[in-house]
Write a structure and sequence with these properties.
Length: 169
């Protein structure tokens, strides 16, 4: 079940891809949520027709198993806005004004949130229930690699398995 913490992670990785390390002229560019999530490039006007299959779409896979109201676009937008505000509040999403606020140029930084979830599976060797952690590593843009660490407490089975790079939109 996806919760707000999962949404924060989804949003943070998109904010990072779209905005991290960029200087944005706020006079020239209107930055709305679709720009922040990388659905619409900065400098372009957002067209709701481009929302299909993105996080702004109620049909996106993430929302199929979300612990909250996901019936309407308005409802998921509110969840996303809450996630953005909370990342700001925690200092993981920072906007600073290197030339002074009146210059209206902002420098954006977004920390990387490592995705780490505890899961359980059966040991391939002895059949004992063991927990493993899944780590998603961002390789830049939408490329990721997943890594599993397995450690069985009842036998000597342990290992790290890495997936080939894959893309995640
Ligand atoms: Zn075992």
């Amino acid at each position: 079940m996806n919760k707000m913490e999962d949404l924060r992670r989804e949003v943070a990785s998109r904010l990072r891809n779209a905005l991290h390390g960029r200087e944005i002229d706020m006079m020239e560019n209107r930055i709305e949520v679709p720009h922040m999530l990388g659905v619409t490039p900065i400098g372009k006007i957002h067209d709701p027709q481009n929302e299909d299959m993105t996080l702004l779409d109620t049909k996106h896979q993430f929302w199929q198993d979300y612990d909250g109201d996901t019936k309407t676009k308005r409802a998921i937008m509110e969840e996303i806005e809450t996630a953005i505000r909370s990342l700001k509040k925690d200092g993981m999403f920072r906007m600073t004004y290197p030339y002074g606020e009146e210059a209206e140029v902002t420098y954006v930084e977004v920390d990387e949130l490592e995705s780490q979830e505890e899961q359980t599976t059966k040991c391939a060797k002895c059949g004992e229930n063991i927990s493993y952690s899944l780590e998603l590593e961002n390789l830049g843009d939408t490329a990721y690699a997943a890594r599993f660490h397995l450690d069985c407490p009842s036998c000597d089975f342990s290992g790290t398995f890495e997936s080939p790079p894959f893309t995640r939109v």
